[in-house]
Fold this protein.
Amino acid sequence: MFRKTMQVFLVLVVLCSFGNASAAYAQDPNGDSVPTAYLPVVVSGVSATESAVTTIEISAAEQEAALAYMTRERIASAEAMEMQQATVPTAAEAAAMAAEAKAAPLGAPQFAKPGRAALNADQVAAAAYAADWAQSALTAEQEAALEAGLEAEAQAAAAAPDAVDGTSQIYTSYIANWVSAMQTQYPHKWVGRLTFSTPSGTSYCSATVLGGNNIVTAAHCLYDTPSRNAWYTNRVFTPAYRNGSAPYGSFAASTCTILTVYVNKSGAYNIASWAPFDIGVCTMGRNSANQTINTAVGWAGSAWDYGYTRHVFNMGYPLRNNGGTLLSWAGAYLRLCSAETFNYSTNVRGMGCNWGGGISGGPWFDHRTLASPTAYGTDGYWPGRVSGYVTSVNSGGFVGVPNIYGARFTNTNFRPLCDVRGC
């Protein structure tokens, strides 16, 4: 069980080629789950306090119990974790925050490439979860129509104009896996529902598979701050979820890591001061078919230290819209917003989007070719291909305002988590 007394370990740091620090974490010798704080030295002006992380390890018995508890029925009926809501700043306050962010250095852009599942992964999963795969069966004519539709969607997305600074409250939204075959297509198969237990019942957020058998989500989907200062339990991730079906089964978290600065937050949620640190990474165990999550579905790419204005595709499983109204087919399908992001405050991006509770932790996939950041190409988000780089996750918004805000992934907020978790 989680102990409230944190053990802090000073870690010697070795610089890697990207200028990041290597890391270590420890487990209590008695086998209990102990959060450990990662304290790197200052590297290239990085604050050691902001780069510290807190980790919890989940025993094999707890993982088995989580998978047994999170039945298909519980996953389908889980309530969405509500989006964190903030007070709308004045125009002067918003302008001052954006100006401060624009003046701050961005760092050198870096990225980690996406990857494919194992060659026989779908066959193994289809045998283990036959009922789920039956919903995705297509005729040859349907497959041809799907291929044409994927290409048309990708071309339309590539032709979308870029705004110079991004535009608040401007977006396009739709259901990404309404057609059953889209459920197991790249990059949609990497996104799923993260279901967990809270003191008031079963809840869920959205999350995305990364390398190293990890998922990335929002910290507020893993840790209850500031009401209890405790981890949620029974964390189970279901990739490619669609209307109750789980073609790759579910995976229980074995270890989760968040930034210590987020653990130490108190008071009311504030986008400018909370969102930059609202990121969490969990290493996952195997599904009931004995597949690792990377073997089963592959993994998304990730990118950090890119600029504030990007063309992104924001995905997740919202239960409500940004005004709090229950959606049709609430939480059942993967929904998407496409928009240009804008500079909100230091290390915080905003983007137009009308989705609300349930989309917390969902990915912002960059559509540009990262090797040539001003162009478009096939390694950015492209439906039907192994493509897409996660550059943020959904953190919060303002009631009634069709925008969502999230961290700009950087060497100081996202990378310390992956340095520990190996993503």
Q: What stands out?
A: The radius of gyration is 20 Å. Residues 303 and 391 are 5 Å apart (CA to CA). The first strand starts at residue 7 and ends at 10.
